[in-house]
Amino acid sequence: MNRIFFWTTMTGVPVSIIGMLLNWPATIMFGIYAITILALASYIGRATESLSIISGPRIGGLLSVTFGNAVELTISIFALKAGYFTIVLASLTGAVISNLLLVAGLSFFIGGLKFKRQSFNIHDARHNMGLLMFAVVVSFAFPYIFSFHLTNNETFILSLGIAIVMLLLYFAALYFKLVTHRGVYALEDDLDEEEEPEWNKKRSIIILALAALAVAFVSDQLVDTFESVATSFGWSEVFIGVIIVAIIGNSAENITAILMALKNKANISVEIAVGSTLQIAMFVTPLLVLLSLAFGTPLSLIFPMEALVSMVLSVLLIIMIINDGDTNWFEGLTLLSAYIIMAIGFYFM
Fold it and tell me: Which domains are present in the chain?
């Protein structure tokens, strides 16, 4: 499998450049860019896995989340700059439901096929549950409700204020978990067995940096194909953002979460799935609101009703699944089933 990703990466980036210079059809280039990003995501996943072993599960999980979301953030920035507001909001929606239902579902399902029961730290899980409720139910639903009584300018000012609060709380949460309460809620089961990383720290960081640069370039080109692809396949911008872009953007987290589940490291799998959602909602989303000022294209936190309901239901479902501190393949299948139902719904929008 690693050889396949290696050759895909080695050929994908040059072919992407050649296709761009020769103006190959947008639909063909969309496929090439998507496959190339998936291959690059595998290197991001392997590098962050090595850093997880070196740095420990908490910091390793944070690194996996941060670099895993590099793809999503890069695509969203270029889409925002190009004025694809529908795709930006849809991709953020897709990132939330994809992380909570697809990434967590696949890791729980595949890990559950190998281990009948996988446990994780319930204290960390419940801490993240509260933040999920705040980020999605409070911060996203609140501006939608008040937007009916505000002008566009007032709605953006409200969104800007919420974005600043979310960023402050996100960094406070990191400080809480990594500094003031680091290890306070650790359990004996959290201690991982000694394991050798695939790559050393220096090599992992170099690979992460190179992969991130390559992803930035390919993502910029990918955004330029959205309009042609939507027309050719009859896809709506919402479906492209919620499903297609989200799957491509979350490929790194998916790969890493599954690898961790297969090694019975459910703590890291849950941290990746839920932590990635929190980073999308509380860091990437407000950051895009602030960046929209620089681009001269104000982005308000007003999600369509369908997107808002989907995110809220995803949060409520994952809370019910992880509330007991362990999981199995059937719970993973439940999450996957919910994702498929939502994907079908967005396809017909």
Answer: 2-347 (1.20.1420.30)
